[in-house]
Amino acid sequence: MEPIRALGAMSGTSLDGVDAAELITDGETITAFGASDYLEYGADERAILAAALGRWPGEAGVDRAAEVGLAAHLRLLSRFPRPDIVGFHGQTLAHDPAGARTHQAGDGAALAHALRAPVIWDFRSEDIAQGGEGAPLAPAYHHACARYIGASTPLAFLNLGGVGNLTWVDPAQPMEDGLLAFDTGPANAPINDLCRERLNRAFDRDGDLARSGKAHAHLVDTLLAQPFFARNPPKSLDRDDFRVAGAAIGALPTADAAATWVAVIAATVAHALRHCPAPPDRLLVTGGGRRNPAIMAALEALPVSVAPVEEVGLDGDMLEAQAFAFLAVRVLRGLPTSFPGTTGVAVPVSGGKLSDPATALDSARGTARQSGILRLARPR
Fold first, then answer.
1. What CA–CA distance (Å, rounded) separates 12 from 324?
2. Which residues 6+ apart lie within 8 Å of 365 measured at CB?
3. For residue 376, is pLDDT > 50?
4. CB 362, CB 368: distance < 8 Å
5. Mean pLDDT, rounded, for 159-170
6. Whole-number percent of the chain with pLDDT over 70
7. Closest by CA position to 183, among listed 203, 204, 200, 158
8. Which of the chain's ends, N or C, has fewer CB atoms near its CB within 10 Å?
């Protein structure tokens, strides 16, 4: 297959907004990076999405959250020329791998009809159905990125979104054999929630709040005593899995709570590095957490070279959106999107559902009629 122009979209559990990025790829290698853009959620949109966190299809607020997320994606993706394929992740509202279920809100069929472009979506369900964790899914793209930057020895990517996840990559091995990936623990989500609830801010800008507080080491140790950290990878988390365990941190003065969550992030990453098959030469940090100087300073104490992915020519704001563009092309080709070493699935799985715009209208009507998606479809 020749490289094609894929457009990927990602709305993470930090609930800040939607990222979109173009990628020229054949699903195995990166040929070129295209345009990218970002749409920030408004306060009302964020509140609707936050109110639906932890809920499953059919529960109160879920349909409204799906409509809000889908409309935001359409506004952003409509800024781009029509791509060959769209990779649409949707908005994760709940994730329960132990219960063999995961929930990403958003109807890819409605999006395909509105954009008049084929859409790959529902990336996680097949992995869950085959016994995997359903997350993380970006590691296949991390392997391609490692080869793109010319790496020849093991390295690791650390994504700090709402939840942290680590991908260990050996670029000298084939993708199936050269990956280990898993969630590390909480990342931006508890700090963002703290800032919204107490300060009416979306996040801790420049890490100023955390840097003004004192970390409470005994609470860090208490959190790391949770059973999740005793499990071997692969393993994954929901953004709110530590809400109860972290209640004592949340009860601290605001600045101390932020500082303690930063210490938790660094401690969980240090714990995660022990699982790597071989020590990585460097830890490349992506996601919103790399923009928090307090977090980056805490990570510098780790026994590995730490740098934002921009130091190797990658875009840490758009890596996840690019990943779903890459995965969409892999689905088109029938190539695996997850592996035993990334989600714990028994055999490699190609997840994802294809909605073609020529046949998507009937299945899209239910969601689209209520949300106005059909009316928002741009003329061609």
1. 12
2. 374
3. no
4. no
5. 96
6. 94
7. 158
8. C
